[in-house]
Write a structure and sequence with these properties.
With 116 residues, the protein is α/β, with parallel strands linked by helices. It has a five-stranded mixed beta sheet with strand order 1-2-3-4-5, with helices on one face. Helix 1 links the parallel strand 1 and strand 2. The radius of gyration is 14 Å and the shape is globular.
């Protein structure tokens, strides 16, 4: 099971939803954006040791909007996120085969399409 080093409740919920897409030894951390809000979910060692970190960015107030959804809305958001992250994990594998190094980031930025 991946390690979750998170404080923002919405990121904890999202990480629990997608953690099975990553290596069992991966570590989920969060990062503060320039506006002071925690908006970035990072996964270190996403595909095993010494693999580039996977950086999921939730711009503007996307996480605030997620937090305001009812249970059904949150489930839809999470399902969309799960599908997008699964696709991006495949893209990460391709990027590694094409030379992306362990010290590099693999950034993914989400938008309001997660809201429906």
């Amino acid at each position: 099971m991946p390690t979750l080093e998170l404080t923002r409740q919405s990121l904890i919920q999202l990480a629990n939803r997608i953690c099975n897409l990553f290596d069992a030894n991966s570590v989920f951390t969060e990062s503060v954006a320039t506006d002071g809000k925690i908006k970035v979910l990072r996964v270190r060692n996403p595909l095993g040791n010494a693999t580039p970190y996977f950086s999921m960015r939730f711009p503007d107030d996307l996480l605030d909007q997620y937090e305001a959804l009812d249970d059904g809305g949150r489930l839809n958001f999470e399902n969309r996120l799960l599908a997008l992250v699964a696709t991006e994990v495949k893209n990460l594998k391709i990027a590694i085969r094409n030379g992306l190094q362990a010290q590099d980031a693999f950034p993914v930025e989400f938008d309001d399409r997660l809201l429906g």
